[in-house]
Structure formats: C-alpha cells, structure tokens
Write a structure and sequence with these properties.
Layout (H helix, E strand, L loop, with lengths): L2 H58 L3 H5 L7 E2 L6 E2 L3 E3 L2 E7 L5 E2 H13 L1 E15 L6 E14 L4 E14 L8 E16 L26 H4 L14 E5 L8 E5 L5 E5 L10 E3 L1 H4 L7 E7 L8 E10 L1 E5 L5 E3 L9 E10 L8 E6 L21 E6 L3 E4 L1 H4 L6 E8 L8 E7 L1 E8 L5 E3 L1 H4 L4 E2 L3 E5 L8 E5 L11 H12 L3 H4 L1 H11 L6 H4 L5 E5 L5 E3 L11 E7 L8 E6 L11
Helix pairs in contact: 1-8
Length: 597
C-alpha cells in the first residue's frame, strides 16, 4: 500500500470519527437542550392559557376587583395612554368603533379607572373569551411577553348587541415562586381593537318546520365506525359532510332547496306565492325521482346539456358519484352510465366551468384521501391524497376524464374548489383548497392544459383549506379571492420552536427518508421561511386583492382572517348597498373546556 493511499485512508477515518463525534454531540447535547427549551416554552403557554381563562371569567362576571387582581401592584405602562373608542361609523344600523391609544405614561390608578369605566358601559355580558395569539421569545424565565386576544359579547347601556375584539401585548412577571396564579401583568400595549354594535335585527330566525322544511342531517353510515364496526384510519372525515344547494330547478323564478345527506337526500320545492311574505316549501323528493339517494356528500346543479333546465351532480365519498338529468317536468332521471361518468373516489366537492370554451359546462371534482387506508402524511403539506379529476363535457352527451392531459390532478387532501377567470384572458382558472396543505391556483393556458401558479401569483397559503370565493370587493373590475382556513387558539404553539421540534422528531424516525422528496418540495416553496409554517397554518382566512397583472396582494390588515375554524365562505351583498360583504361559516368539535382549538 502506497504512502499516498495510507494518508487518504487516515484522513477518511479522521473525517468519519469527526462526523460521528459531531452527530453524537448534537444528539446528546444540542437536541436535548432544544427539546428542554421547547418544553419550557410549552409550559409557559399552558400556564398563560389557565390565567386567560380565569381572566375571561372575571369579565363575564363583571367583577372589577377580580379583574384588577390579574395586574401587578407595580403595574406601569410607559407611553400607553388611556384606551377609548372613537366616534365610529354607522352603516345600515350597525356601528363600528376603533379602540384608540392615548398618550403619556399609564399608572395602576389609571388602569383602575379604565376598567371601571369599561364595565360601567356594559349592561350585561353574554360571553367572554381570552386566548393566546402569539408568545414572544424571552430569555428571562420569570418574564413572559405575549399577544393575547380578548373577545367579549354583550349588551351595552343603549340596549345594543355588541362584540369587542381586542388584541393586546402583555408583559407578565412571576412575582413569587408559587404556581401560575402568581403571574401578574406588569404592563400592556394595544395592538388593535374593534367594537361592532347594532340592534341585532338584520336577520330573523325562522323555524324551518313552520315553512315546510323537515330535515335532519344523518351521516353516511359507511363512515360511522359505531354503526358499521369498520375502523377509520382518519376518523375526522365522518363529520365532514352535509350541505345545501339553492337552485330554481323548475324554472318558476323561486329558489328551491336540495339537501345532500348520508342516508336520504331531500329536495324541497318553493311553493311561495309571488310577492308574499308567507314562505312555504314542499318535500317533493319522492315524486322527483331523487328518493333514496344516500352516501351523498354534496350536490351541484348546472345545465349540462344546454336544454334550459338545471341538472344535478351528486358527489359521493368512495361511492359512485351520480348525474341526474332534469327532465323539465319536475322530475329527474339517472344518466350516470349514459354520460360515462365513472367516478368512485374519496370525492368531496366540485365546480362547473367551461374550461375549453366550447359552450358546454365541464366538471372539476375535488378529491380527498382514503380515510380507511391513509392519514395525511405531512400535517402541513400532505400530498398523498387521491388525484382531483377534470371531466370534459362532450356536447352534453358524455363526460370524458381529461385529468392527465390537463395537468389538474392535484394530490392534496382537497376539500373545496372554485373557478373564475382571475386574469381576464377569457379562460376560467381553478383554485383548489387542500386540507393539511397548500392552496393551489391552476392557470388555464387556453390549450386544454393548466399550470399551477399559486406561488408566482401571490396566493401560496398553508392551512386547513376549506372554502374559496371570487368577487370584486373593491369595485375595480378585477376578481379578488377570499379563502377559508383555520384560525386556531393554539396558533401560539406553532412558533418556530415547535416547527423545529417537529423536524427533530422526524429526524429520529424513518419518515425523514420516506418523505424526503416532500420536505424538499416544501423547502423549494418556502425556503428558510419553513419555520413560520406553524403560525401560517393557524393564522386564519385570507383576502387577496387582484392587482390586475396576474398577481394578488394579501390584505392581512383587512380584519377578514379571524373567522374561527372556517368552512364555506361567500361574497354577497347582504344589505343591498352595492358593496360585497363576506359570509363565513365556522365551527368544530371542541372539548368541554373549549381550550383545545
């Protein structure tokens, strides 16, 4: 063996020993230290959540002394000033006020007066919640800085319903060595605050049974593990269905209602007299040819064959989806086989669009993952779902699957989709909302193909995407985009320390190898911003203004993101003032303490 070769071997051995030493050092010293730091961070957050729950209870009870007990005797906020509501603006009976800062230092005595003045303006409190929004990094274990949200619903002294939604930056200090109850607020600064107040008379609740609608949603029995004894690997899906479509199916100028259902979908005909306030519906399911349709996740109406009557597509999860032709006499006939619509997939939703501009509406179907067999592989970038499907309408006679050639087979866990020509080139584009992942924007190239451009267009977004709507909210002639996500009370836990912990845990498992390509793709989209993912996924809904050049600008200060655990969304003009408003459906299953979301 030559001298040169021996030197190379010795050098290689030295490098190997050095590498092993570095891995050992990181494994035994660096990673445990980072894990311990995250554990301390989590414990601070847990204690602060307990304090915030008690803080909200004190406001719910309107207990002045108890509220002040959360503040340190040494409380002092330099340059805070007194907070007060401005004169506000009133529109169609609803008033909106901004909470504004004052000037000068703020002492404990000023705080006592401010709390008293605030409570004196309230007649009663319906509910109050206070949650962590973000925890700011601090090296002092006896100190905690956090942005908290304060939401109070009640009745003011004028008898109006109101909601206060304030965001405040707190500085707390642990004043004794005893448990969490002895964290005290030593200073605070206003981030932003809004009060909305009104008579609460804009809408009137109607008992559906009084107008002829007797319907109670039932889940798909195949997805009920108690009823069928079959285990779901991803059990959340059993709660994910149910919806209503409003459509004038019989062309009498009045909207009728179709309820997709797990056991028996229903069609209700609007029998109200023209101009009458006496609204009446009749259940016409049996006579319409739609009786006995179960396992239905959603229903969509459109005139598929251009005969002037709206037909029905029923999307079903891991069951054959269906097409019913509107025969124009109040009845529907099953045309699924005749139309060549062979779709058995974990389908969730759909949208009609004429992507090739041939005058016939095509169909794009949003497809989820198989909850019996799969889990979302990455909780923020899952791409192991079944592919979405695009069906081309061939003259109103058949649907042909063109997913592969069109490039629209998104493999996220898709919950919703919508279509519009956002860049005004004459061709409708597609937006896909993926659960446990990213939004996708598919630009219609005009040649039968689409290109995914979410990042380039400025609408790249990560969260539990659930709904989307296009509308020109600023009246500039361009279609803007609003998407629904999750605005979670646990967003604080998704700070960079938790993202880093997640990566460290992955490094300890086989998934770092199995999902290496997914992590690489994610890094290609975000770069070093990947550590912000935890905050992104809990940030809430997104409003994107169309710039008119094929790109969008996200309006983070539009007060449209905090819509809770949001589902379906829609632009509509609620008060007929010609400006588009937003309706956002929200809610989810919570523990009794309601601290889990």
């Amino acid at each position: 063996m030559g001298l040169k070769l021996k030197r190379i071997i010795r050098f290689g051995v030295a490098l190997l020993v050095l590498a092993i030493g570095m891995v050992a050092y990181v494994s035994f010293f660096v990673i445990p230290g980072q894990d311990a730091e995250h554990a301390r961070f989590y414990e601070k957050g847990r204690r602060l959540n307990l304090l915030l729950s008690a803080y909200a209870e004190a406001f719910q009870e309107m207990d002045n002394a108890r509220i002040l007990g959360f503040y340190s005797p040494d409380y002092r906020s330099p340059q805070r000033g007194q907070w007060s509501l401005d004169e506000g603006s009133t529109h169609t009976g609803t008033s909106v006020y901004q909470l504004i800062r004052g000037a000068g230092d703020f002492e404990r005595s000023d705080l006592e007066q401010e709390v008293s003045r605030y409570l004196n303006g309230i007649e009663s409190v319906a509910q109050c919640q206070s949650k962590i929004d973000l925890i700011h990094r601090t090296e002092d274990e006896q100190k905690l800085e956090a942005r908290v949200k304060f939401i109070l619903d009640g009745i003011d002294r004028e008898g109006r319903l109101f909601q206060d939604r304030f965001f405040i930056r707190w500085t707390l200090r642990k004043e004794t060595a005893r448990p969490a109850s002895d964290w005290k607020i030593v200073s605070d600064q206003l981030v932003e605050g809004v009060r909305v107040a009104g008579p609460g008379s804009g809408f009137r609740s109607i008992d559906p049974t009084r107008i002829g609608i007797e319907f109670r949603h039932q889940r798909d029995p195949r997805l009920d593990p108690v009823a069928n004894g079959r285990r779901l690997k991803f059990g959340v899906i059993q709660h994910g269905f149910g919806g209503v479509a409003a459509v004038d199916y019989n062309n009498d100028g009045k909207p009728d209602l179709f309820f997709a259902d797990g056991r028996n979908s229903r069609l209700f005909r609007n029998d109200s007299e023209d101009g009458s306030q006496d609204v009446r519906f009749s259940d016409v399911t049996s006579g319409s040819g739609l009786d006995g349709i179960g396992e239905a996740g959603s229903g969509f109406f459109a005139d598929i064959d251009n005969d002037g009557w709206k037909d029905l597509v029923i999307i079903r999860y891991l069951a054959p989806s269906l097409i019913f032709h509107n025969d124009g006499d109040g009845t529907f006939s099953d045309r699924t086989e005749q139309m060549g619509f062979d779709l058995i997939a974990p389908a969730i939703s759909a949208v009609f669009l004429d992507f090739d501009r041939d005058g016939f509406l095509d169909l794009y179907v949003a497809v989820y993952g198989d909850a019996f067999q799969e889990l979302p592989r990455l909780p923020f970038f899952a791409r192991n779902g079944a592919p979405n499907r695009l069906f081309r309408n061939e003259g109103g006679e058949r649907f042909r699957d063109v997913t592969l050639t069109s490039g629209t087979g998104d493999r996220g866990w898709s919950l919703a989709t919508t279509a519009a020509d956002y860049d005004d080139d004459g061709y409708p584009d597609l937006v896909v909302l993926n659960d446990f992942g990213r939004k996708a924007l598919y630009h219609n190239q005009g040649d039968g193909t689409f290109r995914e451009v979410a990042k380039q267009a400025g609408v790249l977004d990560f969260s539990g995407g659930m709904g989307a709507t296009f509308g020109d909210f600023d009246d500039d002639g361009l279609l803007d985009l609003y998407t629904s996500n999750i605005n979670s009370n646990q967003r604080w836990f998704g700070e960079d320390r938790t993202a880093s912990l997640y990566l460290r845990n992955v490094l300890r498992t086989k998934w770092i190898f199995l999902d290496a390509l997914e992590f690489r793709a994610l890094y290609g989209l975000l770069g070093t911003r990947w550590v912000e993912l935890g905050q992104m996924v809990g940030e809430g809904n997104s409003l994107f203004r169309n710039r008119g050049d094929g790109t969008f600008e996200e309006l983070k200060d539009s007060h449209t993101n905090r819509a809770g655990w949001s589902w379906g969304v829609n632009f509509l003009d609620i008060d007929n003032d010609s400006d588009l408003d937003i309706y956002a459906v929200n809610g989810w299953i919570s523990n009794a303490t309601k601290t889990d979301l």
